Amino acid sequence: MGLKRGRNQSPNKSLQERNELLERYLEQLIQMSRDGAVTVVEGHKDAEALRRIGVTGAITCIKARRASLPDSINKLANMTSELILLTDFDRRGRELLGKMARNLEQKGKPPNLHFWLKLNGLISNDIKDVEGMVSYLQNMRRQAVGDIQIDSGPTVSL
Fold this sequence. Notes:
By secondary structure, the protein is mainly alpha-helical.
């Protein structure tokens, strides 16, 4: 599975369009979490970031477990819930994502990579990890508000 560092899906997307896409993906993630999906992240800071964004369902931290990666994958493969893999967007995160996805698929438990692929394509040029999404989202919201142009109507010279 050759996962590459993402580029913005369209370099011409406006800040507002990117913000709207990011918000939509995160809303979908939050809803799937509410519906019972388990989100798999690398560490505790990633889990905390998802909580701050609004993910309320189960989150498991793959690197925070004392078990080996193969043991952790076996435990994940035995879960009945859908698994959403959301590792970091750096080289190590991509490698971990590929390894987990391949192993889970071999065990008959294909994971959901939709959010990782969408977020990677949208924001990986700007942030390298899941924990960075909180400040990135805050900055995007601030910039979007700052970009609003207020039209006060025609100027009349007297």
